[in-house]
Design brief:
Layout lengths: L3 E16 L4 E17 L3 E5 L6 H8 L7 E6 L2 E2 L5 H8 L2 E4 L13 H11 L7 H13 L16 H13 L5 E5 L7 H18 L2 E5 L3 H7 L2 E6 L2 E7 H6 L4 H8 L40 H5 L4 E3 L5 E3 L5
Parallel strand pairs: 3-8, 3-9, 6-7, 7-8
Antiparallel strand pairs: 1-2, 1-4, 4-5, 9-10, 10-12, 11-12
Helix pairs in contact: 3-4, 3-5, 5-6
GO biological process, one term: transmembrane transport
Family: Belongs to the ABC transporter superfamily.
Protein name: Dipeptide ABC transporter ATP-binding protein
Length: 323
């Protein structure tokens, strides 16, 4: 792995809340509330957390599929969020996304050939014809599909095959960075392993960097080099995967790891049960957002936002009592 190709600084995405007949703004849903990290070439950064913590919004805002509220994203030293239209079109070739739902992310009126080839024609890399068909065949074959699948429609495929079509669509432009937004969450376990192995093999062959978004810690541990843990729009811990699993520093990370099932009925699991419900991102708690559910919370946690600091070895934690 080389130097960082993606640098995210203080990224925020707030969705306005309107009420009343005159649609007056009364607040914001703070889906992403100040995220900062770097991603190296050929690296996979796993992003985990409970549903609604802002993982998917982070990925889409990085790609400028959603307009950010604040912050900066640099890809190979290019400003993504302020890039003009022509420059953004060039960046689209290098930055792609695999969507979470393989059922709704594919156009039901288009064949596999049209789905995979659409971007190639749009970016003027190929014209319709034999050469384009040969390249599409090469891409879908590498993703585990067959040549005779080219003229079929999405409804004719299983969930795993549809996700492979989504991966083929993302790979067609030969990108160097892909946001994988829960690409296996809707699939059976046996199909999950096939798709994960495909993504791993493609990374080894092409040096692709992944931002791998998931709520399955087992999958994230297998595919990631580093893991970031999100809670209510913020990163609370970021570390190399073995350091995170062997020595979690944040109470929220400890609770998540304790929920991983162990395939041994004789071994006792010390579950850490979090009290209360997740606060609303429209009205987050003061100080540390996790203090309302934390078993170690003190007065300082209610009043002061913890610094996201390096405890050594690039193990970053946002907790007053992490040491």
């Amino acid at each position: 792995m080389s130097e960082a190709i993606l640098e995210v600084k203080n990224l925020k995405k707030h969705f306005p809340i309107y009420k009343g007949a005159f649609r007056r703004k009364v607040g914001d849903v703070k889906a992403v509330d100040g995220i900062s990290f770097k991603l190296k070439a050929g690296e996979t950064l796993g992003l985990v957390g409970e549903s609604g913590c802002g993982k998917s919004t982070t990925g889409r805002t990085i790609l400028k599929l959603l307009d950010p509220t604040e912050g900066s994203v640099k890809y190979k030293d290019k400003d993504v969020l302020n890039a003009p239209k022509d420059e953004m079109l060039k960046l689209r070739r290098e930055m792609q996304i695999v969507f979470q739902d393989p059922y709704s992310s594919l156009n039901p009126r288009m064949t596999v050939s049209q789905i995979v080839g659409e971007a190639l024609i749009e970016h003027k890399l190929y014209k319709k014809g034999k050469e384009l068909d040969e390249y599409i065949t090469e891409v879908i074959t590498r993703c585990g599909l067959a040549k005779y699948h080219m003229n079929r429609y999405p409804h004719e495929f299983s969930g795993g095959q549809r996700q492979r079509i989504g991966i083929a669509r993302a790979l067609a432009l030969n990108p160097s960075f892909i946001v994988a937004d829960e690409p296996v969450s809707a699939l059976d376990v046996s199909i999950q392993s096939q798709v994960i192995n495909l993504l791993t093999d493609l990374q080894k062959e092409r040096g692709i960097s992944y931002l791998f978004i998931s709520h399955d810690l087992g999958v994230v541990k297998y595919i990631s080099h580093r893991i970031g843990v999100m809670y209510l729009g913020n990163l609370v811990e970021l570390s190399e995967k073995n350091a995170l699993f062997d020595n979690p520093k944040h109470p929220y990370t400890q609770a998540l790891l304790s929920a991983i099932p162990i395939p041994d009925p004789t071994k006792k699991i010390n579950r850490i049960l979090l009290k209360g419900d997740i606060p609303s991102p429209a009205n987050p708690p003061s100080g540390c957002k996790f203090h309302t559910r934390c078993r170690y919370a003190k007065d300082i946690c209610k009043e002061q936002v913890p610094e996201f600091r390096d405890l050594g070895g690039e193990h970053f934690v946002a907790c007053h009592f992490a040491k």
